[in-house]
Amino acid sequence: MKLKALLAGTTLALGGSMAMAEELVIWHDLGDNGINWFAEAGEAFKKMHPDVTVKSVSFPTDQWYGKSIAALNTNTAPDLLYNNYERVIRVVDQTGKVMDLSDVFAGMADTGFLSEADLNVARYDGNMIILPVQRVQMGFGARKSWLEAVGEDFPETWEDVQRVSAKFIAEDPDGNGKDDTYGLALEAANPRDLIHMLDLYTFGAGLRHTLIDGAGEIVIDEPKHKQVLVEFLKTFTDYGYVSPDTVTHSFPEMYQVIEGGRAGMFRVGDWNVKKWDGADVLNGDFLVGEWPQHFDDVDNAVVIGGMRGVAVPDNAPNKDMAIEFAKFLLSVEAQQASLNNVGAAVRGDFALDGLSERRLVFAQPAHNLNAYDFPESVHAFYPELEADFHRELLEVLVDPQDDWGAYVDALAERMRAKRDSLK
């Protein structure tokens, strides 16, 4: 009894800090950049909540899925989950145990920097499943020194890309005396490799939807969609702008081609720039802009390929404080740390001193933005439809067609039949 009384007295003497101390645990897949960001944000949060410690744990994406779903379903959830919107959707579908943050967001005063497109991406099945924290912007990049070597400016249209690609292949733009350069770096090994790249060229050209629209209609044989798809397929085949083994490339192999100086034009994510600015990678030798324009009457754009955000499990151990930290991630201080460590944010009303011109492209966008439509959030069958679409495209990449228009028309009919079988 004396020991118990002594401990109680000690707790009171410390202002109740022993009883109030909390550790918020957040799971993500951002690696060291994310760990550094959450550590910095956690220290800033401590100024308002001295007894709260933030601990972040990064998992490879596949492990993040499995651990998150299992933890929510067994009531062993962390306090917060952080990931791309579409990945949180999968957790919601598998568990039904992610909090609707609509009322939380409605009670926040400083949110005017979020667009309606940002908020639409945060909602699923009528609920706000994340607070949107980092736009995932993806632009089109080109090696600056290579452009100078072949006497070209940054390519703005598809015709520019074709002309520059041919020069990058033929004119030894890196000056190493070898025939080892390609116009473009792409990837094709898995559905989210090949279809992801097609998404970027499609949305980057200013179109909406890649394969299927919100009403469930297949769009690939609509005239403008068909033109982009045909040119995309010819890039691998008729034109030969990419390395012949690109059909086996996933993200790591595509990055090896880019960072190894073998391709002159490529996707640039906002998270890539800090590394590629480094002296041991591309040393800042690249420009970033909008994806190539295909149509005179449609504006091209940088693509918002996703939205990373914070979700709160219904069974979070420290739910009230988890909500407070989730809200804090939209503060100026946390957003500044997000930009500095991860390369992405949703607000820009803070110091941008010291950012390279390439990072400023994303931090202060002066270009058109076109947001991806996340068909899996509308059509539960979409992942299976996309897998079939990918299989069809891979087959034609190794067995090119003489009449690409007729091929796309026939493919659209097969996709409609597949859609009908999955409904």
Q: Separation of termini?
A: 67 Å
What amount of the residues lies in strands? 5-15%
Number of helices: 18
Shape: globular
Estimated helix fraction: 40-55%
Reported CATH architecture of the largest domain: 3-Layer(aba) Sandwich
Report the oligomer: single chain
Report the radius of gyration as a whole number of Å. Answer: 24 Å
Number of domains: 2
Describe the biggest sheet?
A: 9 strands, mixed
Mean pLDDT across all amino acids: 92
Structural class determined from secondary elements: alpha/beta
Fourth-level CATH superfamily of the largest domain: Periplasmic binding protein-like II
Strands, total number: 11
Care to describe what's here?
This protein has helices spanning 2-13, 17-20, 31-46, 61-73, 85-95, 102-106, 116-122, 144-149, 158-170, 191-204, 223-236, 251-259, 273-276, 319-328, 332-341, 357-363, 382-398, 404-422; strands at residues 22-28, 52-58, 80-84, 123-124, 127-128, 131-142, 182-184, 263-269, 287-289, 302-311, 369-371. The protein has 423 residues and is of the alpha/beta class. It has two domains: 2-133 and 309-365, Periplasmic binding protein-like II (D-Maltodextrin-Binding Protein, domain 2); 138-304 and 375-422, D-Maltodextrin-Binding Protein, domain 2 (3-Layer(aba) Sandwich), CATH 3.40.190. The strands form two sheets. Strands 1, 2, 3, 6, 7, 8, 9, 10 and 11 form a nine-stranded mixed beta sheet that branches. Strands 4-5 form a two-stranded antiparallel sheet. α4 (61-73) packs parallel to α5 (85-95), α11 (223-236) packs across α18 (404-422) and α17 (382-398) packs antiparallel against α18 (404-422).
